[in-house]
């Protein structure tokens, strides 16, 4: 069977450089007997390394009934993909597959029928896009840490975030991907009135924005960088990330207390249609940094994947942000590609390539 017979693309392909290109690959049931080289492995490795996201369908026909077997298959599939990424696509030698079984089985919406996760990066207390060291004017690459006091489950630096769906729930869930480099380029253009001349300008812009959010951390009290903070908003309210980070979540009392005027922002938004305090804050932040409401950003930049049982969805956790809508009873198991420390020559080479290819797709010289 040829590579093309194992892989299909979503409607959001490389014809639109501001969207994430989504690839679906099918794993033949026979592959798990030997778990070796295969066309789908090469396709997935190349696509992930090229800045896209991948849905790995773990033998849709004849799926095992036990979640433990599905998790085992997901681990084997991603191990095969990362082996090729390490050999051919600059993935650092110390990167490994992390299966977060502690989080498995946690309800995705413990207090409601469904939940909408706002744009974020997994493990973003220590997993977020940074400039290359030579373009860092603030020392944010010294440890690449935003918050080291509280984190959820795992302290690792997640280069690629993914999750296996073991139970879809009452209705099929959707995952949404956003090209963070494209968003940064547009935010830069609006801030300075002209497109960036070089990629280094975008990297320095990002470094400035991270440093600002770190300086404001005692005000916004967030443990993750937000879309608004990454895109350069100076308003501390746009640096607030609600619990979850769910659109419907209330803010912490201390966030209301420390930011005058945030009450008005969570009660209404530029488009007038967003539901929940978190979603309204995002709407204000995107309107400030991109000139678009949150629904407008979704329409222009969003790529969508509908996940089914046995699907392993994975994408770049640094150059992308992701959001999701799913049922209360959906169950997922996080399966990621991580390093313990985001440092060293191999990591820096990998990061440089992420910037170079991401900027090149947008016509910006690195």
Question: What do you see in this structure?
Answer:
The radius of gyration is 20 Å and the shape is globular. Helix content is 34%, strand content 19%. Helix 2 links the parallel strand 2 and strand 3 (53-57). The chain has 366 residues and is of the alpha+beta class. It has one domain. Helix 2 crosses helix 3. The strands form two sheets. The protein has a seven-stranded mixed β-sheet with strand order 1-2-3-9-6-11-4. Strands 5-10-7-8 form a four-stranded antiparallel β-sheet.
Task: Set out the fold topology.
Blueprint: H1 3-6, E1 7-9, E2 22-26, H2 39-49, E3 53-57, H3 67-88, E4 96-99, E5 114-120, E6 157-167, E7 173-179, H4 180-192, H5 199-215, H6 217-220, H7 227-230, H8 253-258, H9 262-267, H10 277-290, H11 294-301, E8 303-307, E9 311-316, E10 320-327, E11 331-339, H12 345-361
Parallel strand pairs: 2-3
Antiparallel strand pairs: 1-2, 3-9, 4-11, 5-10, 6-9, 6-11, 7-8, 7-10
Helix pairs in contact: 2-3
